[in-house]
Every structure is written in C-alpha cells, then in structure tokens.
Specification:
about 280 residues; mainly beta; five-stranded mixed β-sheet; 3 helices
Length: about 280
C-alpha cells in the first residue's frame, strides 16, 4: 500500500493588537488556543482542557503521541501493535473519527477515513499538547464531536547554537535516534530536527523503518511582519505479517511468530510545507 500526501499552505493574517494593550506585562500562566480559537488562560477556558507541557513530554515514557495520550483520563488510544503500528484516539467514548487532531491548528485527520494516525506524530518536535474534551463542533465542525487534540510544535529557545542528540534501544531490537539543531538569535528562529526509528517486531515480517525530518525558520521583519516557513517529511516502511492461527498449546517461540503474508509491506510518505506571514496593525 502506498500513500503520498503533499500539502502546501499560504496564510496571511492581519491582527489588531492594540485594543487591549496594557501598560505593563502580566503573567497569564498557561495559555491555550484550542478551546476558543484565541489565546485564553487555561483556567478560564469554558471547556474541559488539559495542557501537556514540554517538560511533561520529556518525562513521559512514550515514543509517539498515541503512547502519550493514553496516560490521561477519559482518553482511549486504539493500537494495532507496537512501535509504528496504527494508533487512533477517542475521547469520552467517541469514535476516532469524532476526534479532531491538529498540528498548529492544521487538521491532520485522514481525508478518506477520518481518523488521525498518532503513531506518525513523534514527540521530539512537540512543545505543547492541548486536549479539549467534549463537543466543539461549533468551532471545528463534525470531526470534533468527541473533542480536539492540538499539537503546538517547537521553536528554538536559546540565543546560542544548541545541538540535541538522543539514542535509545529496547526490546525487539528497537533503536531510536534523534538529532536536533536550533538557535533563536536576533530576529530569527531556526530549528532542524531529524529522527530515525527501527524495530524487528515480534513476528516475522513485522519490522519497521521510520524516518522523519522537521524544519522551522522564522524571521521578524518588524514593520513588515513575521514570516515563518516550516516543513515536515515523514516516511515509514512496515512489514504486514498477516493473521496467525496457531493455538496457544502449539506455541514454541517459532510457530506463533510465522507470517502468513511474508512479503507484504506497507509504505507511508507524508510531506507538508507551510508559509505564513503575520503582521500587526497598531501599537503593541
């Protein structure tokens, strides 16, 4: 099975920032945008909102968004297997098609089947996750009957070059590698992140090869506004072993692992690019 998706979006926003200007700065605490489509203090949002911070993500024992979300109340993650296997989310008993998943406000639910594939969303590039439980169809349409999950992607945070590396191994010969480069200097913000995941799987022909790259470049031209360019490349190849009908009494650490479809493969290629120009009108 081959799937190729390419999405390019150009957005231009004019924002009036002077109407509620204050003389001094106020610490608003945790800010969410998903519940009302505008920046709101989390404790003032009318909806049931959970915010997962970058610090919480780093301390979580999870490899992808699906494994992270299943640790929270009223959320159920359906999974077809281990690393790289299909994972979908439901909230408060909804179906997976009734939960809208977005990245920086961009829906990522499959246009054909209506579900979002959480195993394709890695945690290394996520700054914050906002979960809104309950129907928000008035704001987001029919896909949001159960709720909304909005992922806010990372930006570089330091004014010196930062190199971030990580490598880990696990059972079934899992190997996960990450390399990140970033700097937030003067008026520019630059971030590049690359990931590779490999696994042999439990059964024959259940191996996984996954490659992912994410880039973010933004520059503040002051009176001309803030221009942001970012892109995401995702590629995975997974074996499809097919059903195995070996009864438990015949398991011998070999028969139960045999693949009925030893040559079937599933490939996924998803790429997107975004160009955004944001400018402000009035005094800020």
């Amino acid at each position: 099975m081959n799937r190729h998706t390419l999405l390019v979006v150009l957005t231009i926003f004019g924002m009036v920032a002077c109407l509620f200007a204050q003389g001094g700065k106020t610490d608003l605490g945790t800010i969410v945008v998903t519940a009302t489509r505008r920046p709101t203090e989390a404790h003032k949002a009318s909806a049931n909102v959970t915010v997962i911070s970058r610090q919480e993500i780093e301390h979580a024992t999870a490899n992808d968004l699906g494994e992270l979300l299943q640790q929270y109340d009223q959320i159920k993650v359906g999974s077809n297997g281990d690393l790289g296997a299909l994972k979908t989310v439901s909230i408060r008993g909804s179906t997976a098609e009734q939960v809208l998943v977005m990245i920086d406000g961009r829906p990522v639910n499959d246009t054909a089947f209506g579900v979002a594939r959480l195993e394709q969303i890695l945690l290394t590039n996520i700054e914050q996750v906002e979960i809104v439980r309950g129907g928000t169809s008035a704001l987001y349409g029919a896909n949001a009957v159960g709720g909304v999950v909005n992922i806010i992607t990372r930006k570089a945070s330091r004014d010196v070059p930062v190199i971030e590396t990580d490598a880990s191994i696990g059972s079934l010969n899992k190997r996960m590698y990450h390399l990140g480069l970033g700097i937030n200097k003067n008026k520019g913000n630059y971030l590049l992140s690359m990931d590779r995941q490999l696994s042999d799987g439990y059964r024959d022909n259940e191996n996984l090869k996954l490659n992912h790259a994410y880039g973010h470049v933004s520059y503040d031209f002051e009176t001309l506004g803030l221009v942001t360019v970012k892109g995401d490349l995702f590629q995975s190849k997974t074996g499809v072993p097919g059903p195995n009908y070996t009864s438990i009494d015949q398991w011998d650490d070999t028969k139960e692992k045999a693949a009925s479809t030893p040559f079937d493969r599933m490939e996924n290629d998803k790429n997107y690019g975004l160009i955004e120009h944001m400018f402000f009108i009035g005094d800020t």
